[in-house]
Each structure stands twice: as structure tokens, then as C-alpha cells.
Design a protein that fits this description.
Layout: H1 3-12, H2 27-43, E1 45-49, E2 53-55, H3 61-76, H4 80-109, E3 114-116, H5 118-139
Antiparallel strand pairs: 1-2, 1-3
């Protein structure tokens, strides 16, 4: 087979060198990844201070932990619209609560003596991933 015919067969899909399009991961895998990020981030420190760390599970992290269970269910369910609504609830909770925690802590003590912990950022990131997956599921992308 010559180089020209191999290139032609790869483009047209005929012959030995059949080209396959690159596949993106399914949205349900994104929901699962986002919900696992939220699940683990709920247990990690949300606020780091000079005196120690404040775990997320002692406050709003408990609610994000509950929402991550919805995300795991969204990754398992077969119906696309139901999975999208579960992922949207997970995303809204996992984005809203860390932002509220930052605003609340800032209003109490300002910017001195504390910084956001890794759990807060991980929950926020997992929420963004879940919202993107929810929009992809709602639109029907595969």
C-alpha cells in the first residue's frame, strides 16, 4: 500500500488504516469525578489559620457531603434528564456553600490570619465539574 493510498484510506475510512474519531469521556464520568472531588473535599480542611485548621465536615461540608451522594447517583442512573438534574443540584450546592464560607469568614475577621484550605477549593472545583457535566447531560451530548 503506498503512502498516498494509506492516507486516503485513513481519511475516507476504507481499507486497513481506518481512522477512528477521538472519543471524549461520557458526561456521567465527569459527574462521578466531580462528586468524588466534593466527597473528599468535604473532609479536608476548609479554613487554615495560625492556630489550626477547621475541617469542612464540622460546618457546611456536611451538606456538600450529602450532595455528593446525589452526584454518585447521577453517575449511575440511566435517564439523562434525571442525571442532569442531580448533577445540577450537586453543582449548585458545591459552588454556593464554599463561596458563602469565604464571604462569611471574610465578614467576620477580614483577610488577616486565615486562608482557604484545600478542601474548600476541591469542593468548589468539583462543583464546577458537576455543573459542566449537568449542562452536557441536559443537551444530550455523548
Amino acid at each position: 500500500m503506498s503512502a498516498v493510498s494509506a492516507r486516503t484510506s485513513a481519511v475516507t475510512g476504507r481499507g486497513r488504516g481506518r481512522a477512528r474519531p477521538a472519543r471524549r469521556p461520557r458526561p456521567s464520568l465527569h459527574v462521578l469525578g466531580g462528586s468524588l472531588m466534593v466527597l473528599f473535599g468535604s473532609f479536608l480542611p476548609w479554613v487554615s489559620t495560625g492556630l489550626g485548621n477547621v475541617s469542612g465536615i464540622r460546618g457546611a461540608g456536611l451538606w456538600t457531603l450529602y450532595a455528593s451522594c446525589l452526584g454518585i447517583a447521577a453517575a449511575i442512573v440511566r435517564y439523562r434528564r434525571i442525571a442532569a438534574s442531580h448533577a445540577a443540584v450537586l453543582g449548585l450546592v458545591a459552588v454556593t456553600l464554599p463561596v458563602w464560607q469565604l464571604v462569611h469568614t471574610y465578614s467576620l475577621v477580614g483577610t488577616t490570619g486565615w486562608m482557604p484550605g484545600p478542601g474548600l477549593l476541591m469542593v468548589f472545583g468539583g462543583g464546577v465539574v458537576a455543573l459542566v457535566a449537568a449542562t452536557r447531560l441536559w443537551r444530550g451530548e455523548r
